[in-house]
Known about the structure:
Layout: H1 3-22, H2 33-41, H3 45-50, H4 56-60
Helix pairs in contact: 1-2
Amino acid sequence: MRGLDKRLRLGLGLVLIGLGLFGPIGWWGAIGLVPLATGLLGNRPLCSLLGLNACPAAQRG
């Protein structure tokens, strides 16, 4: 996972959690844990399950 993707995931996760805690979306803010976790771990579980890989170095094999 590259820098911009990681930063966007972390930002989105924090915004959703913040809206859940202090804003109008309530418990739906817990969805923010998913992009936050994937940003922190640098891993995309859904892509792994589907066998997708966006890393050019890994595709060269």
